[in-house]
Amino acid sequence: MSNSSAVAQKPGTVPTSIGQKSGRVVSLDVFRGLVIVVMTFVNYLSPVKNIPAWAKHWPENLEGFTFVDVVFPAFLFIVGVAIPFALQRRLDRGDSVAALVGKIILRSAALVFLGVLTVNAHDYAPQAALPKAFWIFLAMVCAVAIWVSAPPDASPTRRKAHLLARVVAIVGMVILLVLFRGLDKDKNVVWLQHEWWGMLGMIGYAYLVASLVWLWLRNNSVAIMGVVGLLITWFMGDKHGVLSWIGLPVRDLWNVGFVFGTNAATVLMGVLAGNFLKEQSLTTRDRARWMLWLGVGLYAAGTLIRPLHGINKSAHTDAYALVTGGISCVLFAVVYWVMDVKGWVKSAPLLAAFGQNALLAYLLPDVVRNAFGIFGVSLYWANTGVSGAWCAAGLTVFLLALLWVLTRWKIVMRL
């Protein structure tokens, strides 16, 4: 689409081929796509040495943050934005609340399983039956095959192929789990273990809490804002021992303060933005303003309570959740203004494609890295300084190009 055709449209609308045809808010997928682009780049940049500190995660033992530390909260936030749309669409189709609760639990369980799987892969034991790179490659391919579904317009032959691939992948995953051997912190050979839930696992738990809250309160944004405050104070209570009644084993297993507290609060911040987008009485400009002010308010609140526990990504502190949630909300409001209010959607198809295949985007780097690792080949031709940064950029372009091709082939993971 030419730039002139995009500008000529009525403000607040999007091209039929991108927005209206799919029934989606363009900025939702575009923002998620932007997060995936940044996430991919910073992940490839993380092993590179002798680059500026602002290009990496802030040290765990120090208070503060860099733009890298905003990536995960931004993803949590956009997960929340999508929740009101996805659940409302199912309710409109006639799904019962009980059926939706079951669907939410299954989706959360799948994310937790994938999170635990990816975490354990890092502790793979040399004594295991299969080489590490080969096991991880097979496990990730099986995961992709299990959750890639046939597109709605697929032919009967392709649907049968998808079903066969899924059955083979499930059997393969079971065999791989039986063969798995890892190392615990004392270097003992063990089976699957819980070290932490992984990024996907934490997303799964936060999605569970936020989705159930929305099903309960629906479009009551004032009440949802109250739950955000409750979850922030839930973290504070856990930090100061008020939640000791839960029991130390449970608190240690789930890290309840941030898994069910600050992380879930960040997703609910996105739910608030999603409710603004669904509000029919607001114009597109009003929605953008509301989200902008919400983001500013969250950032200000996080700044005010920062002296209590500081901003720390590893601890997922209360101030970290509020400040990064506020930044995410402001950035999303800007994307919404550009895409859905002004209609400048020339770059939307590429970014939206990434955003609609987020789970595959997360797993694909492990697939690619270990596919090369099977043959002892490293993806990095340089890992220090400017040359290392260019290497990370090149790997990012390669991975995103591969993701684009797979998405065009309608290989999309859906839980």
Ordered list of secondary-structure elements with their pairings:
Blueprint: H1 3-7, H2 16-20, H3 26-45, H4 71-92, H5 97-121, H6 132-147, H7 156-179, E1 182-183, E2 189-190, H8 198-217, H9 221-239, H10 248-254, H11 256-278, H12 284-309, H13 318-341, H14 348-355, H15 358-373, H16 385-408
Antiparallel strand pairs: 1-2
Description:
With 415 residues, the chain is an all-alpha fold. It folds into two domains: 28-54 and 64-123 and 193-408, no CATH class; 124-192. Helix content is 68%, strand content 1%. It is built from 16 helices and two strands. It has helices at residues 3-7, 16-20, 26-45, 71-92, 97-121, 132-147, 156-179, 198-217, 221-239, 248-254, 256-278, 284-309, 318-341, 348-355, 358-373, 385-408, and strands spanning 182-183, 189-190. Strands 1-2 form a two-stranded antiparallel sheet. Helix 4 crosses helix 13 and helix 5 (97-121) runs antiparallel to helix 8. The protein is globular and about 55 Å long. The model is unreliable at 1-23 (pLDDT under 50).
Give me the count of strands: 2
Assign an overall shape: globular
Q: What percentage of residues falls in helices of 4 or more residues?
A: 55-70%
Give the class from helix and strand content and strand pairing.
mainly alpha
Rg for CA atoms: 22 Å
- Read across the widest sheet, the strand sequence of neighbours is 1-2
Proportion in β-strands: under 5%
Unreliable sequence segments: 1-23
Mean pLDDT score? 89
End-to-end distance:
32 Å
Supply the number of structural domains.
2
Largest sheet: 2 strands, antiparallel
SS field, number of helical segments: 16
Element order: H for helix, E for strand: HHHHHHHEEHHHHHHHHH
